Amino acid sequence: MQVRTNRMGVATYLAPDGALVAESLAALETAVTEARAHGASDIVVDLRLVPFIDSRGLERLLDLAIDLRQRGGSLRLAYPDAICKDILAITGLDQTIAVFQDVAGAGGSFL
Description:
By secondary structure, the chain is of the alpha/beta class.
């Protein structure tokens, strides 16, 4: 999996291009580590190209949200497809991490 990173305004945008599953989380971890090293505290994960999130992926997103919150930042999710939206709703993660239909809404929520 590849993760594109882009910084606009106050937010850093991470766009993984595959399922967030145990086998592919290393790429996301690397992107998060690099973003934090460059001072990122508000992160949007663009789920547009993420077809599925397993329990390890959900756990990593929750851990990231908690870590960012402890550092004075926050995590937003954007563009979940129907399957990911259902996964987030069934697990209740959408009650802990704000989910937006697009990155503009997610990024704008930091202001």
